[in-house]
Design goal:
Shape: globular
Distance between the termini: 51 Å
Structural class: alpha/beta
Order of helices and strands: HHEHEHHEHHEEEE
Number of strands: 7
CATH topology of one domain: TIM Barrel
CATH architecture of one domain: Alpha-Beta Barrel
Number of helices: 7
Length: 262
């Protein structure tokens, strides 16, 4: 394998760098007494630093992403240039890290699972880095499958209770970002509801996803769980596979102080 191949994106960003970066950020947060959010935690080493910080009573919030929980560095070793589909930062790690991430989610060292959505096409965009992984557009498409991947890997996989699954994908992010009307079913809250079938199985594929991107980094993966109906502020916007929403339905919300930091 040539050192310019996609796999070397991960080699150039080892766990030790993430560990050092997490520790440095935590230390700066402690010195100036300002809470921080560590995003895209991908390794056991970083989890160790976050756990250490929580043991000191520091206000450190942290999140991880679906790819770090279900994909491994082996995907970057895919034949030819296929590994470029999986280039993101931090890079996808060796499988041994996943158990540490799941345990951290269950124990609340990691509070949320989210994802930035980078729908770079493989053809015409990712392939700009042929011969040099540094030129591959960085990031993965996957926002559409976040909830199902977390249900399948977390609840079905025995790592999370159903209640904790809801917390890390919905309730905790709303509290973290000061949106009390979201992430909760209560009087006065927005009626954002999902009717979810925990037993339905389906296969993830670029042929069936709704994202405007020509590949899926979860191609062929079978998952258990899927949404039947989605309501936003009481309005049905998804039923089955049909999108019923409309442009302009969204509403700007001004954030309040995070409940986690009060």
């Amino acid at each position: 394998m040539r050192p310019s191949a996609p796999y070397y994106h991960a080699v150039s960003r080892p766990q030790a760098v993430e560990r050092e970066g997490a520790h440095r950020a935590i230390t700066m947060s402690e010195i100036v007494d300002v809470p921080i959010l560590l995003v895209h935690v991908s390794s056991a080493d970083a989890v160790e630093q976050i756990h250490w910080a929580h043991g000191r009573g520091l206000k450190i919030l942290a999140e991880t992403c679906p790819q770090y929980l279900v994909l491994t560095a082996e995907h970057l070793r895919a034949p030819g240039f296929e590994g470029a589909k999986y280039i993101c930062s931090p890079p996808i790690r060796e499988r041994s890290n996943q158990e540490h991430l799941w345990k951290a989610l269950a124990a609340d060292d990691l509070q949320a699972v989210s994802t930035d959505h980078c729908p770079f096409d493989f053809h015409g965009q990712k392939e700009m880095g042929r011969g040099d992984f540094r030129k591959v557009p960085n990031g993965l498409p996957g926002v559409e499958h976040r909830v199902d991947l977390l249900h399948d890997g977390g609840v079905v996989g025995g790592h999370l209770t159903p209640n904790r699954w809801v917390e890390v994908i919905s309730t905790a992010p709303a509290r973290m970002f000061g949106l009390p009307q979201k992430g909760v079913v209560a009087a006065g809250a927005d009626a954002d509801l999902v009717i979810y079938d925990p037993n339905r199985t389906h296969t993830l594929s670029a042929a069936t996803h709704h994202m405007d991107v020509d590949y899926s980094c979860y191609e062929g993966r079978s998952v258990q769980g899927g949404a039947d109906v989605v309501l936003s502020r009481g309005k049905v916007i998804v039923e089955g596979d049909a999108w019923l929403g409309a442009a302009g339905d969204g509403r700007f919300l001004k954030r309040e102080r995070s409940e986690y930091l009060r």
